[in-house]
Amino acid sequence: MDKIIFRMDTVLSDVHLLLPNARHLMTRLNADGQPVFVSRFRILWDVEEKELGCSGSSPERTADVSPSGATEVPLDDDGDLDVVRRPRDASPDRERVCPTILNQASGDSADGCEEDEDGEDATHRDVIRIEHTMATPLEDVGKQIWRGAFLLADLILSRPAEFEGATVLELGAGTGLTSVVMATQAKMVYCTDVGQDLLSMCERNVTLNQHLTEAKVSEVRVRQLDWTGDDFCTDAEKPFSWTEEEVAELHNETSVIMAADVCYDDDLTDAFFRTLYRISSNLRNRSTVYVSIEKRLNFTLREMDVACEAYNHFRHCLDELCDMDDGKMEYRVEQVLSPIPQFLQYERVEQLEVWKITANQK
Fold first, then answer.
1. pLDDT (tens digit, 9 = 90+) per residue, 190-217?
2. CA–CA dist 153, 167 (Å, integer)
3. Which of 278, 239, 262 is nearest to 172 (CA)?
4. Residue 23's pLDDT band (boundaries 50, 70, 90)?
5. CA dihedral 47, 50, 52, 58 (to 10 degrees)
6. DSSP-assigned letter for residue 257
């Protein structure tokens, strides 16, 4: 496959947009007939502060969520959106921030331990391998990799003591990249999303990266969690269902909930916050929630202007959660402002944010 055909409903992550055309090499077709790719991402365990341009040892700075979710939009002298375009001549470092797409040679499989283009073992402890699709319809964007997952993964890798031995729930895990990274620190990770094909891909990614957790007693369980439902699916006849014991363990042991780039649609955002409240209010322990999001500027006919509608709705939901007074739960909402060291190679843009929600039972 040497080129991607775009339809009017096609969505493509910036992560994949930056891939060189010569590396658009698929490994298989999924159950929906979509091309599946495998990308390798290197973890910079020994990253140095001078290379990152930020310090990981500074105290965490947070900002309380404000009632106004106003977003500053760069405009030119005529009032039009001022878009800073990338130079046509790519810098020497541009190649470094792109994931490497594997070329599946004859006789090799995506589950094998073949060497990468630099002759390094694919099961090296510094390498994450993720199956994903590219250029999908909106309803399948979870099968792509998004920058919010990288930012949340960076936060996890920068705070190993905070997640050491924890039981963690990821909502809307997509390809499972963030759950895989969390498994390098936590004891148990429940990696959840909806859709058999997506969850099958997620499960394959967990298997592809078992080498990262060999030295730890940790486990990742891929399970279905539909935000539009009120209960965990415990029907043993259905794939990726929960056992009663797992549901009990989740409620008794979970102390961390995370979600990466899941609030891009208002209805989906509302469902996410309903699910977040329902689960956090039933946990035995105090819980901390980390949500990463990327502000995306779009021209809207309703506003006849450039706006971040999905982001603004997300901020509105944060305000409502912070102001909630149901007599049962209390939430504190903060934005993580301290520099997050970058352990993974991707384009870190200023529109990426991480929000921290602390949930306490009254």
1. 999 999 999 999 999 999 999 998 877 7
2. 16
3. 262
4. very low
5. 90
6. E
Q: For residue 317, give the nearest of 270, 260, 261 by alpha carbon.
A: 270
**Burial tier of 131 (Cβ tally within 10 Å: 0-12, 13-18, 19+):** buried
Could you tell me if 128 and 180 are in contact, meaning their C-beta atoms sit under 8 angstroms apart? yes
Query: Are 352 and 292 spatial neighbours (Cβ–Cβ below 8 Å)?
Result: yes
Percent pLDDT > 70 in the chain is 71
What's the rounded Cα separation, in Å, for the pair 297 and 350?
13
SS3 199: helix
pLDDT in tens, 174-185: 999 999 999 999
In angstroms, what CA-CA distances link 201 with 76, 143, 177, 207?
A: 44, 8, 11, 10
Q: Give dist(CA 136, CA 295) in Å, integer.
A: 20
Burial class, 11, CB count within 10 angstroms (exposed 0-12 / middle 13-18 / buried 19+): middle
Distance from chain centroid for Cα 233: 23
Determine the Cα–Cα distance for residues 317 and 303; give it in Å rounded to an integer.
20
Q: How many angstroms separate the CA atoms of 177 and 147, rounded?
A: 11
Among residues 216, 207, 177, the alpha carbon closest in space to that of 40 is found at: 177
DSSP 139: G
- In tens, the pLDDT along 238-269 reads 999 999 999 999 999 999 999 999 999 999 99
Strand partners, 115: 121
At 263, list the tokens: 């609030």
